[in-house]
Amino acid sequence: MKRREFLAASAAFAATSQPVPKGKAEACIYIWLGGGAAHTDTFDPKVKGDGKKKPGSYYEPIGTAIRGEKVCEHLSKTAPLLDRAVIVRSISHGISAEHAAAANLVHTGRLPSGTLQYPSIGSIVAHEKGARTEEVPAYVVMGYPNIMRDPGFLGAKYGYVYLTQTETGPTGLIRPPDVDLNREDRRETLLGKMRDGYVKRNPADEAVGQQDAVTRQAFKLAGPKFLNVFDLQREAQALRQSYGGEFGQRCLLARRLVQSGVRFVEVSHNLNFLNGSGWDTHNEGQLNQHLLIQELDSALSTLIIDLEKNKLLDTTLIVVATEFGRPPEFDSGGGRGHQSLAYSMVLAGGGLKTGQVIGRTGEIGKEVVERKISLPDFHATIHCALGIDPHKNLFAGDRPVPITDRGEPIREVFA
Amino acid sequence: MRLAALMAAAAFAAQPEDLRSGAVQVEIFENLPKGSEFNPAGDPAMRYTEPVFAFTNIPVKYSNEALALDRSVPYVLRAAYERVLPHGQLQFRLRARGAAVLMMDGAEIARTAAQKPNTSSDDPVPPPVARDETGRRPAPYPHQDTVAEVAGDGRTHKFQLVAVIGGKGLMPTPGELSVSFGPVKQVERLLGPDGSPLLEDGAWEELLARSERRHREADRVRRLDASKETVARWRERHNEVRAYWKGRPVAVPALTPGYPANNEIDRFLAPKMNEAKVRTQPLTSDLDFLRRVSIDATGLIPTAAEVREFQKQPAASRRAATIERLLSHPGWADNWVSYWQDVLAENPGILKPDLNNTGPFRFWIHQAFQDGVPFDRFVTELIQMEGSAHQGAPAGFAQATLNDAPMAAKADIIGQAFLGQKLGCARCHDAPFHPFKQKDLFSLAAMLGGKDIKLPATSTVPVVEGMRKPAVNITLKPGEMIAPDWPFAELIQHNETGALPTDGKVESRRQLASLIVSARNERFARVVVNRIWKRYMGLGIVEPVEDWSRSKASHPELLHWLAREFVISGYDIKHVSRLIFRSHAYQRQAVAKLTEAQTTAASRHFAGPLRRRLTAEQLVDSLHLSAGKEFECEELNLNPAGDREPRQFLNMGKPVRAWQMTALSNERDRPALALPIAQSIVDVLTTYGWRQSRQSPSTTRDDGASPMQTLILANGVLGTRMIRLSDDSAFTELALKDLPLTQLIAETFLRVLSRPPAPEELKSMKELLEPFHKDRKVAGADSAYVARKTDSRVSWSNHLSAEATRIRMEEERNLRMGDQPTKRLQSGFRERYEDMLWAMVNSPEFVMMP
Q1: CB nearest to B670's CB, from A178, A272, A284
Q2: How confident is the model at residue B812 (pLDDT cuts 50, 70, 90)?
Q3: Are B581 and B292 in contact (CB under 8 A)?
Q4: Separation in Å, CA of A372 to nearest CA in chain B
Q5: By the 8 A CB rule, do B681 and B620 touch?
Q6: Contact B844/A211, CB-based, under 8 Å?
């Protein structure tokens, strides 16, 4: 047995004998509510509090397409579509002091160990499934580049292309504004000459050959086929309006990216100027939180319907994730602190058995009382939905590293 | 001037006028009793002078091992000066971020209030300060200006400033602390001799740059002085160590016919090649050699002037002379910092660091290589982990935020870096393919911790009832206590070491250091020279360089000889580098990259160095050098207001070389926390294998080629800026010179690719530019360079406001437009010349080592 195989076999000891569900999703749109969305003010409503002393939700609850289950009143467009979704109300991890640490945990499924840097869920999916075609990247981020989204030990190849605003397009792929097609042509002709000369002077050099090959491939990636994906003007005005503001446009772009063959799109939703604090609703951030929830509502509901119309909902897993929830109590400024031992995340589409709620929290949403779901479990569920074996090993060099930290998929969501 | 600024990250040439003792006497007081800050009594901690009343830099305090130390919180600056005041009504302007008092002849004339720590993040952004008609530099947020009117009488007066710097919850920096004066309603001059700089932007920025240079140089002189005795003690140790290694000689093989040899290295390599009938690669061309050795020694391609200088030297001696020149280049230190940042997992965070972050000990690494600290002392100081954690001393190495076994992580780093022992797998179980037990790692960790260490529950593999038994052995139980112990008795025994010349505070750390750097621990010297060898030759004599447990040396005698040279030279990395640079082996044409399977010790010959790519840092620095543009970047600091403490918000300064970049830590996805220029540089660095987060040690970077590498240079902001013919581009100046077109093209090739154009290249470039060359200049147009400005009003305390978001997003948009093109060149010519540069920079030739 080869060293690598032996190590793989020995590390996989935790696998159970039960067969692993294999989902049929082909792509994932990962909506990131940065700052920590209050579960009791969104997907896990409880009795109303008073915004001061009395803990509880901040809004009225409304019924949903899942019988007997409610969400907050500002999710009125999404509520009737929740038969296409699974609300997981029992996420629990315990890191709540700092945003970056919790956000990193939710993205990688692990705490830093100091011996390895773990890859993000996006990089893992890019690594496991690649892009559907050569002309597009596997992994796109709409948000700021940072460590939690990084490929870690998988290497830069499994990193992402990113953009911070839909209007500007992806960094590095869009030609600078002063370079028209003519000029681009002239440049590539000159580059061709420089390159040919260099390769000729260094024949049979693998590294030179590789660098030359990627240069050729690169301009294909930056070609019109992929860049047209970013042209939202091509969509009907009514649809664009239905998606809503910048966050909605990002979701629309996410659908277009998935259509073009991208496997994993992370869409960050933290335009903090809407309410002053984004989802991190300490103090006064609470007052206008409903604007944020309504924005999420328009975008998420339109995305579900739009994917469905394009016959993509069954093969596209939507994940609504956030680093932690918030306690039902209010702080001295009328906002909320952080709570990570009980909060909600949402899965939708992706061919899952939708229209159900997983897990329960207690009376006011402070603790999990049923079916605690850890981050490794949540990751294992995403992997399964995308047809990735949640017990397999990744390799850091020749060291096997289980793809999740002993996570088990939520079996109820697989038909 | 711009170029010089780039070249010298820290070792700025001292300018004589800057080193004159200034007229203003300054004292620093520490640990003053609360309440007595404005009447400092007793001896000051330090005395120095400044030319004028501007105190933007405070001298670094050093230990006698030259480690930066923190000053007390707060500390006090007192400055005194006498001068004649001219007749007429005058105004004095005291500018400070914190509490300060200005006295004239013993009487207070102006005062500013103490700065308060701020826990807010949604303060309003203050309105922009309107520049008044005088053109005075406005006080940056949140500085205070206090103005006092004084009647000038033609007599001499005594001035004294007392300022409290830092404090609980504040940054320990002075900001733009200054006193200036002049006739009322005019822009003031800084208090000092006649003709001192005006308090306006241009003069202030110049003063700032001069002050920075002067202080860096003064810091260097002071720390060398403070550590004189330390230096002497280590020198003494080297004499003792030499005796041991002199008794361990190795026979240098005779010359092998047909195998050229520049020095011993080649004589060691030849017999094995001869036996295997492997031919050496031919010697590189002179110009290829120059480019390669410049990048390897300094991280920078040669300048056009350096190429010409090189060509003027006698052919027989130019290579050796170049090696000597480069070994004393300031870039030597810069180029080594990146390497040790990777190997030692330096991982600072600028925003509430909690992802296995360390302090910024990069600054100490740089200082050590700049000062020529012998490597045994370097390792000892690293292991002792003392000095200031936030200012970049080795205390920062001790940190590992949110890691429940920080010393286990450090033990793994040290094992890999200096002993070739990879212990990482032993974090949670006995390593299956290494001879290490979990206990080995934790007993080493306990030596670093200075006490027994408890195995955390997370550092184990659970054995679950009813499931298959793990194939990895688990010999320790969570919660078990492990005592400090040296786990590598096969390398050296406890009783074999002598004491080190150090005053380290922790006994077991001193012990650990003495075990590692002991002359008898031959593994240490071998591991270090093998690292140097791999860095320049592309492959180690032992592979992998960080994990020796499974492999043999390809050339054991050479390895021993290099190790011996290293120790006898006094643990001098420069000496070993010189030996390698001089060897024929290094100077040969590169061999194509080998596949992994071919790199067994038996098949490794070093017929030439392996083909390598420039590292990310070398690429970014060389691009700047080539374009002659300054390293433009925001200060790496998300708390410019200074109203939070360094533990939460490090100020990593304004970078001038790529190694100074850091993770931008915008996990919060907030536009107001973005640093757009820094991001555009980080984009290129990460695409080329630099890690923004170094949570774990690494020696070999991911050097795979990817399409994004091409695209980020071809279309990205930094790449676009570097080829843009703006008024700060050296290429713009070159194009404006009265040069024949052929010469312009040749000079451009020299600047970018360190070689003349090939005939067919010259032909295509001439065809491109000829029709536009004659009329390229725009008559009457002037240079209009304006440095990009970052709005300093945005800070953590107000970053949640809509205005802060708007400001940064606008800066991001402006940056995307690139540098303003020059108006001095016709756009038809300018664009084509830029296209030529684009093609040269984006050719694989630019990013590959010759």
Answers
A1: A272
A2: very high
A3: no
A4: 19
A5: yes
A6: yes
Kindly state the average pLDDT of the residues B684-710: 90
Give first-to-last CA distance, chain B, whole Å: 29
ipTM: 0.90
Q: Return the H-helix or E-strand segment holding A62.
A: strand A61-63
Cα gap B571→B238, rounded to integer Å: 8
Amino acid at B722: M
Contact partners, residue B272, CB within 8 Å, separation at least 6: B278, B554, B555, B605
Q: Which helix (H) or strand (E) holds A30?
A: strand A27-32
Instruction: Write the CB contacts of A136 (distance below 8 Å, at least 6 apart in sequence).
Output: A221, A225, A226, A229, A257, A260, A261, A262
* Exposure class string for A49-73: b at 16+ Cβ within 10 A, else e: beeeeebbbbbebeebebeebbbbb
Domain boundaries, chain B: 2-226, 330-528
Residue at token pair 């004239």: B104
**Residue A381, burial from CB neighbour count under 10 angstroms (0-12, 13-18, 19+):** buried
Summarize the confidence of residues B218-247 as an average pLDDT: 95
**CATH tag, A22-174+245-413:** 3.40.720.10
Give chain B positions within 8 Å (CB) of A6: 432, 471
Measured distance CA(B311)–CA(B638) in Å, rounded: 47
Which 128-147 residues of chain A touch chain B by CB within 8 A?
137, 143-147
How is domain B2-226 classified at the CATH fold level?
Answer: Jelly Rolls (2.60.120)
Q: What is the amino acid identity at position B594?
A: L
Contact list, B352 vs chain A (CB under 8 Å): 98, 100
> Which residues are bridge partners to A273 per DSSP?
none
CA distance to partner chain A, nearest, from residue B511 (Å): 24
According to DSSP H, which parts of A44-180 are helical? 99-108, 121-129
Give the pair of three-digit tokens for residue B612: 């390598």
pLDDT at A12 over 60: no
Q: Does B831 touch chain A (CB under 8 A)?
A: yes
Phi-psi region of B302 (alpha: psi -120 to 50; beta: other; left: phi over 0): beta
pLDDT number for residue A17: 56
- Please give the residue of chain A at the shortest CA–CA distance from B122: A276
Report the side by side order of strands in the sheet with A27-32: A161-163, A139-142, A264-268, A27-32, A316-321, A343-349, A85-91, A356-358
Give B323-379 as a DSSP string. HHHHHTSTHHHHHHHHHHHHHTT----SSS--SS----THHHHHHHHHHT--HHHHH
Q: For tokens 């030297």, what's the residue? A: B313
Q: What angle do CA B808, B810, B815 make, to 5 degrees?
A: 95
Residue B105 has pLDDT above 90, yes or no: yes
3-state secondary structure of B29: strand
Has residue A8 got a pLDDT over 50?
no
A392-405: pLDDT as tens digits: 999 998 789 999 99
> Chain B: residue nearest A401 by CA?
B425
Instruction: Tell me: pLDDT of B93 over 70.
Output: yes
Kindly state the DSSP code that residue A350 receives in the 8-state scheme: T
State which residue of chain A sits closest to B666, comparing Cα positions.
A146
Q: How many CB atoms lie within 10 A of CB B756?
A: 15
Cβ under 8 Å to B: A residues 241-280: 268, 270, 272-273, 276-278, 280
A197 → closest Cβ in B406, B611, B761:
B761
CA distance B120 to B142: 14
pLDDT on residue B599: 73
Q: Which residues of B82-113 are buried (b: 16+ CB within 10 A; e: fewer)?
A: ebebeeeebbbbbbbbbbbbbbbeeeebbbbe
pLDDT at A356 over 70: yes
**Lookup: tokens for A57:** 């939700």
Name the burial class of residue B33, with classes exposed (0-12), middle (13-18) and buried (19+) by CB atoms within 10 angstroms of its CB.
exposed
Decide if pLDDT at B343 tops 50: yes
